[in-house]
């Protein structure tokens, strides 16, 4: 390998034109010349001795790659300036090897390749570190937001994540048999779909306690529920609990609590609806606030069902199906019974409790007791306590 000097060539001599090569390559790529610091020396050394990158060389290139990432230099631009510098050095500082010197060409190309790989490694390291740092900040913000942290600090950080906390927000939570995690591909895909469907801004998607949490700027819980249902239809993640709209940082925490409560009540009530609006469950929350009165109501109205063969559960399920369906025929289909068999069960419940499920007047007491039983986990919870 030869270097061009005053019309003659001498092996392994670096041309003073290296500074010009660096300047031209950097100008063409629009980058800082310092990104090429030491690179041409490595190329010329490889041409002179055949040596590859040393550990120090690799460390230097990785450090430059990290610095480029931190300075927002695109990886493609970084690779471009190195390839330009390599090409200029090859054509203007070095001479293609003659016969018997193919190993020199291989050494130069190997060094160029390894240098770019080291650059990319450092660049990726910086990117991953930035992502981890951003995710840690995001996780801290989400935790503070959902649990009602300091309003001032939340407002300062909210803009970074696309939220205007002065507006009204609705929180929805999605529960599935398989918990959601931040690193789950399913979580990433659903988050992207939700952002695209609801709005690129004003939407924050994260995970919390195995749930997928969506904070959306909106005043219409039903509309948010429709968007969520359509967005996740393909994955069919299970039940969606939706809070009511509230303004301010504290409003997000309140809506989140309502959405979690909606999920909890849906589970206790055995509701199979795809999504549960918190506003639709207010009556159940009211019932649940006076536990002593609810226990008394359940014991007074439903306790006689426990003394039947098979226990209270089959008859309790019959009442639940009947009240939800609104008529005997639909309830019978749900329970896979004949209408005659279902009617017989309703008559038996009437005899045992003294309340007629088909009577508009008596139905309210009986239905309220059934709701209370589900909220209390009766009769299973009572049986486990007695053990």
From TrEMBL:
<dbReference type="InterPro" id="IPR025736">
    <property type="entry name" value="PucR_C-HTH_dom"/>
</dbReference>
<dbReference type="Pfam" id="PF13556">
    <property type="entry name" value="HTH_30"/>
</dbReference>
<feature type="domain" description="CdaR GGDEF-like">
    <location>
        <begin position="150"/>
        <end position="265"/>
    </location>
</feature>
<comment type="similarity">
    <text>Belongs to the CdaR family.</text>
</comment>
<dbReference type="InterPro" id="IPR042070">
    <property type="entry name" value="PucR_C-HTH_sf"/>
</dbReference>
<protein>
    <recommendedName>
        <fullName>Transcriptional regulator, CdaR</fullName>
    </recommendedName>
</protein>
<feature type="domain" description="PucR C-terminal helix-turn-helix">
    <location>
        <begin position="315"/>
        <end position="370"/>
    </location>
</feature>
<dbReference type="Pfam" id="PF17853">
    <property type="entry name" value="GGDEF_2"/>
</dbReference>
<dbReference type="InterPro" id="IPR041522">
    <property type="entry name" value="CdaR_GGDEF"/>
</dbReference>
<dbReference type="InterPro" id="IPR051448">
    <property type="entry name" value="CdaR-like_regulators"/>
</dbReference>
